Amino acid sequence: MVQYVPQLSALSVNEKSQIKGYLKKMPKQNYCIVEGEKMQIADYCTICFNEFGPDEKVRETQCKHIFHSDCIIIWIMWKLPRPHCPNCRQEFSR
Ligand SMILES: [Zn+2]
Ligand SMILES: [Zn+2]
């Protein structure tokens, strides 16, 4: 079975720049660093449902939810032009 995964190379220049704009607002960090800063934090990613490992790269959205960096990039590609948070459904602002 082949699953459809959006490819960055298949996107238009406009779409790529939109994605970059969203990602700029979600700094990439190590999970252990984010975890160390916060009292309460999800221990798994609600996009792939896998637990975060201490060395995994994650991104924190403006609504303070954490996802794997790779997962949130694919999510944004899927949800263009109006991506929202998979956790709380708040629309990401650019
Ligand atoms: Zn994930
Ligand atoms: Zn959220």
Automatic annotation (TrEMBL):
<dbReference type="InterPro" id="IPR013083">
    <property type="entry name" value="Znf_RING/FYVE/PHD"/>
</dbReference>
<keyword id="KW-0479">Metal-binding</keyword>
<feature type="domain" description="RING-type">
    <location>
        <begin position="45"/>
        <end position="89"/>
    </location>
</feature>
<keyword id="KW-0863">Zinc-finger</keyword>
<dbReference type="Pfam" id="PF13639">
    <property type="entry name" value="zf-RING_2"/>
</dbReference>
<keyword id="KW-0862">Zinc</keyword>
<dbReference type="InterPro" id="IPR052788">
    <property type="entry name" value="RING-type_E3_ligase_ATL"/>
</dbReference>
<dbReference type="GO" id="GO:0008270">
    <property type="term" value="F:zinc ion binding"/>
</dbReference>
<protein>
    <recommendedName>
        <fullName>RING-type domain-containing protein</fullName>
    </recommendedName>
</protein>
<dbReference type="InterPro" id="IPR001841">
    <property type="entry name" value="Znf_RING"/>
</dbReference>
